[in-house]
Amino acid sequence: MLKKKVTLIAAIGLCAVGIAVGASATALVQKVQSEIRPDFTIAVDGKVQEFKNAQGETVYPMLYEGTTYLPVRAIGELMGKTVYWYEADKRIELKTEQTTVTDADVIVPGTSGAADTGTAAAQNGGITLSRAKEIALEKAGLKADEVTFTKAKLDTDDGVREYDIEFYKDGVEYSAEINAADGTVRSWDTERRDIYPTQNVSGQSSDIGLDRAKEIALEKAGLSASDVTFTEAKPDYDDGRYVYDIEFRRGRTEYSAEILASDGTVISWDTDND
């Protein structure tokens, strides 16, 4: 059993290397016949893995001439990396999402380099994350130096790729969903808030604080701050209770937690492989 597992993982590793080489090599495109093998089980460190495509459908290993292959998305999940596709170059790149600062309240992905999801979207004919933020600010009639961003990320809603943008100024929170293809504002909302993302929740006997809420969410995921990129971290209201909304990513997996500010109880928890 051990020998079979090692052989399988080696095949997966060779498949990943083959993708990198194939993207730059001059070769003929060939059609081959392979077997989809739902009876194959992939286990990493004893944990059985299940892989899904962008539509949430289960995908299985393929067998071709005695070698087991996995979709590149599955390989990215195993390696904890994000898969980027560059249409013009016909190039697939697996990259680790990294950030220099890991202890900030909110970490927003950068706007330069191939690793930025906004840049990747723009290379496919859409707008960048920076442009989406500009559009939201123009809608609000504000400037970047006047607001504090609490969310800025690429997402998918009903099959449409969009940017979720949130920021606040003077107790007012602005929320926008902007089409990543053409910059259309799909939804817009403003709401007055009595609490602010960079402050502890007030008016109650105890408050664990934002930093502890982030630690609790990371403990729940079994990850450390250096493993992830935070996309949202702020206090909020839920049914009259003060909570902390925490979101972060590792590779293609997004983790979302709602944590009670008074004692650190995890009210809700969700993971999503997009």
- Work out the count of structural domains: 3
Identify the strand order in the major beta sheet.
10-11-12-13
Largest sheet: 4 strands, antiparallel
Query: Whole-number radius of gyration?
Result: 21 Å
Number of strands: 17
Question: Helix and strand string, N-terminal first?
Answer: HEEEEEEEHEEHHEEEEHEEEE
Alpha-carbon distance between the two ends: 32 Å
Total of DSSP H or I helical runs spanning 4+ residues: 5
Instruction: Give the class from helix and strand content and strand pairing.
Output: alpha+beta
> What is the percentage of strand-forming residues?
35-45%
Point out poorly predicted stretches: 1-25, 99-117
Residues in helices, as a percent range: 10-25%
Give a brief outline of the structure.
The protein has 274 residues and is of the alpha+beta class. It has helices spanning 2-24, 72-79, 117-123, 129-140, 210-221, and strands at residues 35-36, 43-44, 47-48, 51-52, 58-59, 62-64, 67-69, 82-86, 91-95, 148-157, 160-169, 172-179, 185-192, 229-238, 241-250, 253-260, 266-273. The protein contains 5 helices and 17 strands.
Report what the structure shows.
This protein has 274 residues and is α+β, with helices and mostly antiparallel strands. The protein folds into three domains: 2-79, no CATH class; 117-192, Roll (Nuclear Transport Factor 2, Chain: A), CATH 3.10.450; 210-273, Nuclear Transport Factor 2, Chain: A (Roll). It is built from five helices and 17 strands. It has helices at 2-24, 72-79, 117-123, 129-140, 210-221; strands at 35-36, 43-44, 47-48, 51-52, 58-59, 62-64, 67-69, 82-86, 91-95, 148-157, 160-169, 172-179, 185-192, 229-238, 241-250, 253-260, 266-273. The strands form six sheets. A four-stranded antiparallel β-sheet has the order 10-11-12-13, covered by helices on one side. Strands 14-15-16-17 form a four-stranded antiparallel β-sheet, with helices on one face. A three-stranded antiparallel β-sheet has the order 1-6-7. Strand 8 (82-86) and strand 9 (91-95) form a beta hairpin. It is flat and about 65 Å long. The model is unreliable at 1-25 and 99-117 (pLDDT under 50).
